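Complex 196.
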Amino acid sequence: MTKRVAIFVSGGGSNMRALVADMVGDHAARPVVVVSNNAGAGGIAWAEAQGIATEVVDHRPYGEDRAAFEAALDAALARHAPDIICLAGFMRVLTAGFVSPWAGRMLNIHPSLLPQYRGLHTHRRAIEAGDATHGCTVHLVTPELDDGPVLGQATVPILPEDTADTLSARVLEQEHRLYPAVLRRFAAGNTQRLDL
Ligand code: GAR
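Predicted structure with glycinamide ribonucleotide bound:
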């Protein structure tokens, strides 16, 4: 059975595009919906242009009421009956109430070599720490932020002249290799860790 994938984005969605581009041919999964908390997300316009269903659930009307926001997300998702959720630059923290029912079926990509640098500004923090390497991680999502079993990592060197912007661009290239490769294996039932 083909696996149905929901992709969550908040911004431009370059990782989403890489995932969608790979889900063809003998890939065990297909994209069924792109979900965003941001109606203006470039990723939503792109998905619509591709003929992929989209759902926008703006978080702002819900204020601090995360449970109500997540109930609306759930309702939107239910219309598409996904098997797998891929967070791809989705910049809202999801609580245990939303995450726990998806245990083992929700993936995220994070721009650091987890467990290093959870949270934001990972590239700047890696440079400031004097690290020799940086990279990205695809992991299963658990209620803890940027935690959960690692499915794959890609490593890049940090160069002496790197700024947060140049390093982030180099990591993003690897994100576009790593995330599709991990999802392809995951959808086929392979959860062995992949290192690029
Ligand atoms: C990516 O670098 C992704 O790793 C990061 O946001 C960017 C989204 O770019 N995600 C996080 O920081 C999540 N904690 P994209 O919209 O072009 O894929």
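DSSP finds six helices and eight strands in the chain.
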